[in-house]
Amino acid sequence: MKTNRGISYNEMPLFLSVYSWYDDEEEGICLPPAACRAGRCRLQTTAGEHNMIVLVTDENVREAAGVYAWGWRASHEAFCTPEFFVKHTDVYQLEYLKKEIQNGKSFFLLLAPGPVGVVSVHGPLLEHLYVLPQMQGRGFGTRLLRFALGQGAYVLWVLDNNRRAIGWYESWGFAFTGRAKRLSPALRELEMARRGPHAAPGVHERENGI
User: Fold this and answer.
1) Contact, 125 vs 174, CB < 8 A?
2) Are 122 and 152 in contact (CB under 8 A)?
3) CA distance 85 to 5
C-alpha cells in the first residue's frame, strides 16, 4: 500500500525479537516460554503469533521510534505540508522519543511478533498511541489503549479534525473536558477524559493555550 506521498508502508522493516508473556489471571505478569507453550499466553493473532507489550528501553528505542514515525506520518499526512514532514525525519523522531523518556514518560511497544504499535503513559496522561498503517484494523490499537488504561491513564489530547479517533475514544467512555490548546489558526488539540470522576474540567494541569 502506498500513501498519496508515494511512501510504501509494505517496505517498512519489522525488526524486533524481544518477547514477553502474560498470565491468564493478571495482565502484565511476565511468564517464561514454558508457560507460553502451556497455553497461558494472553493474546494471539489470527496467524497464531504471540502479541506482547514491552517497556521501551535503550535496547529497543530505535524500533519504537520507527513505529512512532510511520504511524505519526500516516495520521498527519492529510493536513500537514511536505515542508513540515521534511523537518520530522526518522532521526528527529528518535531523539524526540529519547527526550520524552528522559522527561519521565514511559513508552511501551506492542509486538506481534514484530513491532506494530506504541503508546506512552505519564501519570494519568495517555499519549503517542500509534499503529503501523498496514497493521491497522486488527485490534492492535485497542490492545494498546486497554494496556494504557490498565496503567492508570485516563486523560488524552486529540486533534479536533481527527473525527475517527474522537469517535473511537468516545466509545471507550472518554468525553471532552472543555479544555483545548490551539496549535495553529485552523487546528486545536482537545482534552478528553474518561467519563465519571475523571471527566471533570481541569483533570490535567496543562494550560488550555487558547
Assistant:
1) no
2) no
3) 11
Q: What is the pLDDT of residues 96-130, one digit of tens each?
A: 999 999 999 999 999 999 999 999 999 999 999 99
Query: Grid coordinates 519521565 are at which residue?
Result: 104
Q: Hey, what amino acid is at 202?
A: G
Q: Which of 137, 134, 132, 174 is nearest to 154 (CA)?
A: 174
Please state the pTM of the whole predicted model: 0.71
